Amino acid sequence: MSAHIDLRLSGGRVFLHGSGLVAADLLIKDGVLTGIVEPGTPVDATEDVDVTGQYVLPGAIDPHVHLGKDIRVPKDPDDADLETASAAAGGVTSMLVYLMSADPYGEVLEKADRVMAEHARVDYGYHFVLGTDQHLKELPAYVHDLGVSTFKFFMNFRGDEGAYLGMPGNDDGFMYDLLGLAADHQAMINPHPENIELVRRLQGRTFKDPDQPLRSWNAARPPVVEADAQQRVAYLAAATGASVYAVHTSSAAALDVVRRQRAGYPNLFVETCTHYLTLSTESPCGTYGKVNPPLRDPEDVEALWQGMADGSVDTVGSDHNARHRSFKEKDIWTATAGFPGTGVLLPLTLSEGMRRGVPLSRLVDATSTRAAKLFGLYPRKGTIRVGSDADLVVLDPEGGSVIDAQTQYSAAAYTPWQGEQIAPRIVHTLVRGTFALRDGRLTEARAGRFLPRPRSGAAALAAAYEPEEQS
Ligand SMILES: [Zn+2]
Question: What protein residues have CB closer than 5 angstroms to ion ligand 1?
Answer without folding.
Answer: 319
